[in-house]
Structure formats: structure tokens, C-alpha cells
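Changelog-linked ticket: magnesium ion example.
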Amino acid sequence: MVFGQLVVGPPGSGKTTYCNGMSQFLKLIGRKVAVVNLDPANDALPYECAVNIEDLIKLSDVMVEHSLGPNGGLIYCMDYLEKNIDWLESKLEPLLNDHYLLFDFPGQVELFFLHSNAKNIINKLIKKLNLRLTVVHLVDAHLCSDPGKYVSALILSLSTMLHLALPHINVLSKIDLIESYGKLAFNLEYYTDVQDLSYLMYHLDQDPRAAKYRKLTKGLNDVIEDHGIVNFTTLDIQDKESVGNLVKLIDKSNGYIFSGIESSAVEFSKIAAGPTDWDYYRYPLLFSILYTAI
Ligand SMILES: Nc1nc2c(ncn2[C@@H]2O[C@H](COP(=O)(O)OP(=O)(O)OP(=O)(O)O)[C@@H](O)[C@H]2O)c(=O)[nH]1
Ligand SMILES: [Mg+2]
């Protein structure tokens, strides 16, 4: 069984930086990591890349050959990758023995709630290669500084969760910058826990532009609250403790924590229902490796 993360999120939310930081952290705690770049627009990669979509197709070539702009070109590249999934499978196969996989995706969010190419690629890989993957959806914490943008972030997160239908963790990235945006309308837990959104309506009403769309925003808030599945974890990619806490959540969501454990279904469900720290306490070796590293 092979474990890993699918790193997605809007442009500039920090996906490539995250893959770099996360791969370094995972190596530190003893995992063999392979980063897979599936963004054909990623020119200067900060990490050493095990597989690069650029070796299959180049965005610049597509734009010239098919007279497409960068976004249309990107969709073409993802369609091309889906048609040539054998290429990706053959590149991944040698890594499957002992690597943990990190997939760096493009920032065009329409790939994750509109088009089916990225979803088909992911599902084919999961099925054919027996992968256990968690979606790590990065959203810039800056969006908390504006109630309207925060609602957009919630809707985007919900759509991505429903579209991909995989273990999923929403992350507020670049949390190190949050104080520079001024005082937030609520404390950070309000945003991470997605608490009562009716309080947000009051703040939206203070802005004449937002007030115009009150009914729509209220409807969107109701959709988010009815589903009740969106929340966020905060991440400072330069802080080992912050990265370590996220790793624990991811390990639980994709089943990494259970790998190599011979136990009954009852034991597994106890672990699944318990708090994350308890898992590491229960498995002292893993716990000590993790905490020696951070
Ligand atoms: N302060 C701060 N800056 C960050 C962080 N993560 C990323 N950045 C910066 O944000 C910018 C965008 O980061 P990327 O990692 O390229 O973001 P991306 O999501 O891969 O961007 P696209 O691939 O274009 O969608 C870069 O200038 C990074 O240095 C963070 O945690 N804190
Ligand atoms: Mg990137």
C-alpha cells in the first residue's frame, strides 16, 4: 500500500512551497519521499522532482501549437495526461515499493470542481496502483480578513471536497502573515471551526457592495452549514510543530497510521475515533520519531 498527499488549492496558495517544506519534514522523520509535479506551468521547482509532467507535455508548446492561453493550455495538458495515464503510471511504479508520494497540482481551481480530467487521473492512479491519498487543500489565510472572501473560500473548499470525494483536509496556509492583515473580525478559531455563519452576515451587511448580495450569501452560508463538513487546520510551513500536527492528521485520514499494524476491526475503529495525539502515544516508536524530529 502506498500513501501520499494530493496538494491542491487556488493559485499562489502555497502548494509548491508546501511540497518542498513537507517533503523535507517527512524526510527528517525517516520517510522516503517522492514529489510528483503535475503542474505544467511550474518553471522553477524548489524541490527535487521524481516525476515531472513537463517530461510528457510542455505548456508553452501547447499554447503555441493550439493557439491557447495559459488556462486553456493547462486544461489541454491535463486532458493529455489523462489520455496518457500509462506514462504517469510507468513513472510511479518504481517508486511504489518504499516511497511516500506528494503530488503538486496546478492552481486552476476549475480543475477540481468543474472538469473531470484531474479527478479521473487521480481515481485511475488510486485504483491501478493501490494508493491511499489525502487531498490537502490549501487556502490562503488572507481570505479570513474579508468576510466575503471567506465565504468564497468555504464554497471552494466544499465544492472541492464534494468533487474529489477523497479523504480531505482544508488548510489555511501562510498563517505566519495573518497578523499583518490587521485585526480579524473574529478570533482564528471562528474561521478554522467554521462557527455560526450568521455572525458573518452582520459584518457583510456593513459593506454596501456585499449587502447587495445578502440573499445569495445567506443561501451559500446555509449550504455550507447544511453540509457541515468544512473546517480548516492552520499551517505555518516553516514551523516544525505546525507541520508535524498536520502530518498526524493526514496520517490518520489516509490510513498511514494503521499501516503495518496487525489488529482487529474493533481496535482500528478505536484508533480512528480517538484523538490524534493518542495514536502516537499508542505507538511509541512512531511518536518518538516524530517528536525527535520536531
Ligand atoms: N509568508 C509566506 N509565504 C509563502 C508561504 N507559502 C508560500 N509562500 C509564498 O507565496 C508565493 C506562492 O507560493 P507557491 O508555493 O508558488 O504557490 P502555488 O500555490 O504553488 O502557486 P501556483 O502553482 O502558481 O498556483 C511564493 O512567493 C511563496 O514564497 C507561507 O507559508 N508563508
Ligand atoms: Mg505551484
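Closing comment: Example verified and attached. The first strand starts at residue 2 and ends at 8. The CA atoms of residues 203 and 209 lie 12 Å apart.
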